[in-house]
Amino acid sequence: MKRSEINRAIEEAAQFFDRRSFALPEFALWTPEDWDKTGSEADEIRDCMLGWDVTDFGSGAFACIGRTLFTLRNGLHDDPHYPKVYAEKIIYNPEGQRAPLHFHRSKMEDIVNRGGGNILIALWQAGPDNQPSDEEFSVSVSGLRRKVAPGETVRLESGDSICLPPRIIHQFWGEEGTGPSMSGEVSSVCDDRSDNYFLESCERFPGIEEDQPPLRVLCHEYPASQ
Ligand SMILES: [Fe+2]
Questions:
Q1: Per residue in 23-39, pLDDT tens?
Q2: Domains in the chain: how many in total?
Q3: Predicted confidence (pLDDT) per residue in 156-181, tens digit
Q4: Which one is predicted more confidently, 59 or 96?
Q5: Is 221 among the domain residues?
Q6: Which domain holds residue 76?
Q7: What global pTM score does this model have?
Q8: Does 213 fall in a domain?
Q9: Which residue in 35, 65, 61 sits closest to 50, CA to CA?
Q10: CB-based contact 164:108 (threshold 8 Å)
Q11: CA 176 to chain centre
Q12: How many angstroms does the Cα of residue 222 sit away from the middle of ligand 1?
């Protein structure tokens, strides 16, 4: 995807979070020049891939398939330096933009509508072949257990949340006509390099065409500490 799309997406998300009074840590504003001067005190940010994460999953159609998010905290499996067992993200959801259909092999996550428009989330249980099964199943929505038919769409209004155990196939997006929203993700440790099972081939961290200078550094681009 193009660097200009990434710059624009971060600016839009940061403005939305600001308007909704969701404050980000200071390093959300660091420029590439700031990162070049930063030492090992920021190793947790680099190693746990905290910070901005913008992707079109290789779709070339960012407005339809894409994600702009900021990882606030995370741990690292099998690294005693980072024993944290939980993670938190904040995701900006423009109307209609989706991540590809996926499930997590081991991560359990709560998706929380933290304000703005509604969030729709389509759900299936993954079968033994890792494809959507035709079985009914149940999920917890804001603490209330409810049955879900395969492919059913659950609506999360502001303040609602849904708990997704591993192997629940999901895809969520901002409901058209209700405005952009932000969703929190509260989860067990997130390993975006190996825990995601996408039902169609896609690139979690696609190559970037440098059509303008970067305003921020993405979570997978940090330079080594100085
Ligand atoms: Fe997910």
A1: 999 999 999 999 999 99
A2: 1
A3: 999 999 999 999 999 999 999 999 99
A4: 59
A5: no
A6: 3-198
A7: 0.95
A8: no
A9: 35
A10: yes
A11: 19
A12: 24
The answer as to whether 99 is a domain residue is: yes
Q: What is the pLDDT of residues 116-137, one digit of tens each?
A: 999 999 999 999 999 999 999 9
**How far does residue 33's CA lie from ligand 1's centre (Å)?**
32
**Is position 219 within any domain?**
no
For residue 57, the model assigns a pLDDT of 96
Contact yes or no for 69/162 (Cβ under 8 A): no
Name residue, tokens 């006509």. 177
CATH number at residue 149: 2.60.120.10
Amino acid letter, 72: L
Q: How far is the CA of 225 from the centre of ligand 1 (A)?
A: 30
Nearest to 82 by CA among 106, 115, 47: 47
Say if residue 189's pLDDT is above 90. Answer: yes
Structure tokens at 69: 């998010």
Output the CA 104–ligand 1 centroid distance in Å: 6
